[in-house]
Every structure is written in C-alpha cells, then in structure tokens.
C-alpha cells in the first residue's frame, strides 16, 4: 500500500507547532558559529566532528548531549539568533502559530540571567511577526531539578508575565513525577499561565504520571502522553475534556525505537485531540513537516487523518476562539485548493 499524502502536502499544510524546545533547535552549524563568536572551546574542530557525537537511544542519553551543547548560548543576541533561526525554518514548514518551550534553569544554572534568556527569545517572537508567524513562549521547569529551584524560577517568571503564555515540565522523568511540582503548577495556574507537562513515552510510572496530570494538576495539554492508551478511562477523560496530546514521531524513533503511530491512530479514532510536532528538530533529523510526513508514510495515514492532526494543533493551542476559526478556515481552504 502506498501513502496517500506527499511531502509537499504536509509541508504546505497550515499547522500550529506546540511541542518544540528552542534549545533543541540549536543546529550544529549555529552551535559552531556561536562558539566562535563567544570564544568557547567545544572540543570539536569541525561541524562534522561535532555531529558524530550526536548519538543517543534514550531520553537520558539524549539529554546529556542536549545540555552540553547549550554552553555556547551566552548573550541576549545568542538567544535571539537561536529563536530567529528556528522561526525562519518554521515558516518554511508553514507553521502559522507556534508555542515554544524554553528551559530557563538550563541557563541560570550556568550563570546566564533569566532576563538575558527571555529578552532575546521574546524579541525574536516580536520580529518574527514580519515573517507572518505568530510565536509565544512556554517556560518549562526542569523536573530533575529541585522544587525550590522551580519555585524561584516561577517567581522570576512573574516579572515577565506578559512574555510567557504558559508553564511546562520537561527533562528526565525517571523518579520525577508531576506531583513533585504540584504547588508550582497550582500557583502558575492561579497567576493565569496555561499548563502543560511532558509524559515521555514508555517511562517508569507513565500511566501514574498521566493520571496525576489529568486528575490532580489538571493540565490543558500533555506532551507526548501516548501511553494513555493503556488506560481506557483516561483516554475517555482526555477526549471529553479536549486535552491536547503533542506527539513527536521522529523523536520517538530515536528515543523509543518506535514512532508510536499505532497509538496516534488509536487516539485519533477515539476522538482525542492529538497532534504532531518536532520536539528537538536539530537532534532528531527533521522539522515539523518531516514529522507529519514520516508518520503519514510509515502508517499510511489518509489525507483526512493528516488534516485532523493539523486541525487538532490549532484547536488545542492557546489562542482565542476567533483566531482558531481563522486558522481552521485556512486549513480548509488549503485542502480544497490542493491538487494532488
Ligand atoms: N527536553 C528536551 N527534549 C525533551 C524531551 N523529548 N523530553 C523531555 N525533556 C526534553
Ligand atoms: Zn519535548
């Protein structure tokens, strides 16, 4: 059986990107350039030599490479350049709206101030309006850091409330359940931030973590979260509450040796608002359109299923109902006018 959608269809389809870590968009070439600009010795003399170290087959082995690469990010301009580089690529993927994760603790813990990070990233989101893309920022707590560290990060973020749309949770999930940050999520919600959190595929206690997120913390979205298929009651709850699940096929292929397409199809069939994203595109071999095409191709998704995934991305984004209607219309017009 052959696929029913082309790479061109997935590339030009209007979409929202809701699961992309800005630090995961740091390409080897930008890393190399920033290292030279900031006089930092990466330990590699060529980009190809650097790329050879990009070996990982689990969340923890990936995170080691990912955090080590960040030391080239030093100045506000570096964060601006990082975000602008990604936003240009997102535009080429016809991303119309993006909610970008950033990890302040990965930078404050090595002496870079919160203001340096947020001011550089935010300035890029403003300038990117000239590219006709709407970009927002989601601040993530690193779950393998302490509660106290999350609390002080949240307190700093309150000084930048107008620049941050929501709060997320990422990094190493092993023995770091969502409930560790119950107080910080509760306070963030009371302060008006939207809530999301990672439930990476096939982690120890995956279902327990998903249950905490849905029944106690009451997040709006779950990042990955495909293990929910193991619990039909939770699937029903997620569908009823229109919780967004953000799946990342290429990242799953690297870190879990399984794209999780069977789970995506099951969740689509059960009416869960699941959608497709890129996670850390500089590390997992593709941007968002590549992720759409990879899953479409491998699992023979129909055009209707692909379009539903794109509609779900807008429907579960943190924009107004009026904006959602405009983007959904754009998707419908695209489908009607696409000949192939
Ligand atoms: N940080 C960056 N990418 C991540 C992922 N896939 N899971 C958890 N934390 C992350
Ligand atoms: Zn992620």
From TrEMBL:
Question: For Zn(2+), which residues are the binding ones?
Answer: 19, 21, 198, 279
Q: Which InterPro entries match?
A: A_deaminase_dom, ADE, Ado/ade_deaminase, Metal_Hydrolase
What is its biological role?
Catalyzes the hydrolytic deamination of adenine to hypoxanthine. Plays an important role in the purine salvage pathway and in nitrogen catabolism.
- The gene from which this protein is expressed is add
Check the UniProt entry and state the signal peptide residues, or none. Answer: none
What protein does this entry describe?
Adenine deaminase
Swiss-Prot/TrEMBL catalytic activity = adenine + H2O + H(+) = hypoxanthine + NH4(+)
Q: Record's family?
A: Belongs to the metallo-dependent hydrolases superfamily. Adenosine and AMP deaminases family. Adenine deaminase type 2 subfamily.
Q: Which GO terms describe its biological process?
A: adenine catabolic process; hypoxanthine salvage; nucleotide metabolic process
Alphabetized, the UniProt keywords read: Hydrolase, Metal-binding, Nucleotide metabolism, Zinc
Q: What is the lineage of its organism?
A: Bacteria, Bacillati, Bacillota, Bacilli, Lactobacillales
User: Pfam families, per this entry?
Assistant: A_deaminase
Cofactor(s) named in the record: Zn(2+)
